[in-house]
Amino acid sequence: MRVNGWRMSSATDSTADQTTHHLHHDWAEKELASNQIVQAIAEYENEESQNLPPLRDSINPKALDTAFESDGRPVSKAGCITFSYYGYTVLVQSTGQILIKKN
């Protein structure tokens, strides 16, 4: 599935019987991971993204967008960032994998 140009898919987490949404972010692209996450959650909730609270209430969007890049290029170090936003737990990995799960 594509939402606003982003590849998205959903998979069922059998341990909690909830859906975990899987997105992929390309750190070399100009699109921001922070925008991708807000747009995806808005889509899951059938809301307009501007109706959701600011992401900065949960995490610094600029820090998130630049955590795994250097001078506009992806970094090779492994890592992940986890935070909560609008009733979802969001896990962002340095590989570009983003997991979004309803709390």
UniProtKB/TrEMBL annotation:
Stated name of the protein: Halobacterial output domain-containing protein
Residue segments, region Disordered: 1-24
InterPro entries: HalOD1
Compositional bias segments (type: Low complexity): 9-18
Matches recorded under Pfam families: HalOD1
Domain (Halobacterial output) ranges: 30-101
